[in-house]
Amino acid sequence: MAGELLDNKGRGDAAWQWPAIHPEGRKIGLIATAISLVFLLIFDWELIGWPLLALSAGVFAFFRDPERVVPQGDNCIVSPADGLVSMIAEVEPPAELQGDDGTGMLGLPPGPVIRISIFMSVFDVHINRAPIGGVVRRLVYMPGKFMSADLDKASEENERQHILMERGDGVAIGFTQIAGLVARRIVPFVKPGDMVAVGQRVGLIRFGSRVDVYLPAGTDAKVMVGQKMIAGETVLAEVGKQQLLEGIAH
Fold first, then answer.
1. Catalytic residues
2. Where is the protein situated, by its record's location annotation (predicted)?
3. pLDDT tens-place string over residues 146-161
């Protein structure tokens, strides 16, 4: 009926449900489960089998892929990752996201901008989502180290993947997927030229990592250090809006 409030799938009633498991993790989880069952049912080695079975459940949980309700707003920049805001700093964007990449397509302009760093533990959902809707203009993979992702220098020294997106009005956002101590693979779901919607899945990082978001010039963060983010739902900032935030942890 007109005016009826619906859930994120267009139904009248909302209910909790088990989150889907992303295909990237199903094979790993099934292999781990099969190995644990071999130890339990064939060799009867419970000391090994039960811990492996618990690890299998953990693998499935790690690759969970819940649905998200994306905020509707022309200037909203949403979080690309689940996790904790570990740093907010004014920095120069990475060189890989600036200038001409050889195709004639310009990247982010030089000059300091606000960078929001979101740390993902192994308990967070690791599916990353687009902070804005638009065209993927650039995707640059950089090999590197596997230091703790919560260190500031991880932005420049760890294995990482830069993604540059541009809205229809020319506003560009850059963000970087950064591997951590345990993470050993960054998996992209998109490529340059793809058109994606805000909150759409764009990739994942296996096992504990970080995502840096570079806000447009003249835009301040609407979140604070220590705040919990939900990918595709939490609004990080509004394009062109500047404000001073203060908060108290409880």
1. 209
2. Cell membrane
3. 776 667 777 777 889 9
